[in-house]
User: Fold this.
Amino acid sequence: MQYSQMSNPELAAEFNELKKQYEELKAQNLKLDMSRGKPAGEQLDLTMNMLKEVIGVCDCKSESGLDCRNYGVLDGIPECKRLFAEMLEVDSDNIILGGTSSLTLMFDYITQCMLTGAGDKPWSQQGDIKFICNVPGYDRHFGICEYYGIKMINVPMLSDGPDVEKIAELVKDRSVKGMFCVPKYSNPTGVTYSDEKIRALAALKPAAKDFRVIWDNAYIVHDFLENPDKVLNIFEACKEFGTEDYFIEFTSTSKISFPGAGVSCLAASDKNIQMIKKRFNTQMIGHDKLNQLRHAKYFKNLDGIKAHMKKHAALIEPKFNVVIDTFEKELAGTGLASWTKPNGGYFISLDTQQCSAMRVGELCKSLGVVLTSVGATYPYGKDPEDKNIRIAPTFPSVTDIGRAAEVLCLCIKLATIEKMM
Amino acid sequence: MQYSQMSNPELAAEFNELKKQYEELKAQNLKLDMSRGKPAGEQLDLTMNMLKEVIGVCDCKSESGLDCRNYGVLDGIPECKRLFAEMLEVDSDNIILGGTSSLTLMFDYITQCMLTGAGDKPWSQQGDIKFICNVPGYDRHFGICEYYGIKMINVPMLSDGPDVEKIAELVKDRSVKGMFCVPKYSNPTGVTYSDEKIRALAALKPAAKDFRVIWDNAYIVHDFLENPDKVLNIFEACKEFGTEDYFIEFTSTSKISFPGAGVSCLAASDKNIQMIKKRFNTQMIGHDKLNQLRHAKYFKNLDGIKAHMKKHAALIEPKFNVVIDTFEKELAGTGLASWTKPNGGYFISLDTQQCSAMRVGELCKSLGVVLTSVGATYPYGKDPEDKNIRIAPTFPSVTDIGRAAEVLCLCIKLATIEKMM
Assistant:
């Protein structure tokens, strides 16, 4: 029976029963963490052989003949650029490799727009500027805007991508300079943008000619299924509209090889590549080419990466399943919450009833279960409806994540009844 | 006999003799490169065993217990921070590790000053700003200023450091925001700053309270001698004057381990570290921790680095010697040129007579010997006296560098006589 259909005495009885379960769990002194989109140790073990590559003198040469140990090459060695080019379905010439973290490539790109512009005056000299943020979304994206004082405008994520109609209205404002998108297995909803949505984004006619979309394809090969979600190549979609300068794509091997020692990458139009390379010429001598060589030698090509990602999926999918199974068992049909069932990526997004998520977070914490800070999936850390919870199931063991999901369900029930009583 | 004392017929005879040598050399189709401050392959071979570190699962743990393969730690793992702290004689808390290239740390720091300031308004909002550049100096430093439109003011390098009296005058101007210094084995002169100079720099009273010195200690352990040059710890020197916020120190392992896969580092006051970490929080997830672990495990401590640098010195010093011996033999007492004799580092600086260096560069090039672009050691690539040539002897073999030095001497003689005739 749904809580909304219960009489007061029925609710009170349910509350007492839940409270009893709560006290039992509390006595167990649990310590479970569902907060971090972090691979588990056994996922990292999958790539250990990569570290044995590049250990002999002759192994340190790129196919171009370059000694990767020495200076040279700003945008990455050819075999590693090719690996990413195949993954992103772009030409190698439109690829630039970075260091470990694609977030740095994004931050540095926005910094460049702020200080030297994106074909118009520097953003920092254009008065108040704004970014569109699809919500719920990724807190690190929002953090860049907040750091630079770029005002953020929430646009809701729908089941097949962002609300493009709303976006099309917003970009009529010249001060709206850009947007963040995670087109595949979006953080945190797990939504993959439909072809229709991507075409509509490619067709946008922003008033600002220096409009830029941070197209963060972080989970491009992070599939669970034999027939995975497919995401339209944004640059292909742009061709029809001549809008390829508006999009800069990013990805990395953080969740393919090692979060602490991966290779990041951006893909962009010829014009944007040229502008970014101009900065690279002054900003650096080059990124870690031995690590690029390790990655290229170990994965070889996209097939190599795909085979590798199946091993990751075999470790991750059971963790997603145990969470979703627990939700189905405990919450299906109750009206207490809704959740996403992603076909890949690192997150499940759960919506409680309005004005409940903070309380659920508190209750979970009191039972030793840490969730991603409630609100973090919204700009400025403020979820206007206080309902979204990001669940990161990858790091704990299957057993632990299952228990954590049970605790979460109990806390959702408790928080809801508390509010009703 | 000096050219200036020769009669016209004597000069003509000398010219003909030199021209004959020139034609003989031209027929040899030489291809020699003295342009790049780049370690030779056999120097890189010295560190190959480092790449074999960090290959077992248990080896990927930092002493802090952190799995270096995974996310976590913005400023670097403790054992690698300690390694740099010992090298720079500062507390580990005042160290932040970067990626492969210290130039990036410098660029990013200046970018931060431009966009969010160094305790005052952002530099980019303070109208025209200026930097002091000690000349001859490092073109990559000048490149950062040029990229951001920061006006550069030349101050001559003397035999024991920059002309601090001139600097003390210049910093009375509030728009002078900073300065580049390479305090040990300076690029390209090889000069090490005397204690007196460093104390005078520490005692500067700039009008701009957001004045910042890029203290690029790139060659801090790159000694040739048993009793190497010692450079005063800048932060110790600052204590007396309370000026530690004016200095940010940088270094890297580029010329210790691998230019293409090293670890960079900055050291700064508590206040500056805090401001830089604030940016790091938004800019990145972390730098390559496995590479930090490799470096820490392989070198262990400063003694380990010093022992390693002796092996580098054994390979480099003979190359410096052959160049300087050739200069002594061919040019000593002629008045045609003067040159530095550094006790370490990567460069020799040679001054021809005025208005000759460009022509020397052309003549060398016509004989297949590539020098660093003449002028590159000055801001905007313009050597006002057209006399400075930076010689980078490390990359070619001893034999090749000896021949290149002979070619250079011949071209200096030719260029001078051409001008006199």
Q: What stands out?
A: Residues 302-331 of chain B form the longest helix (30 residues). Chain B has a mean pLDDT of 95.
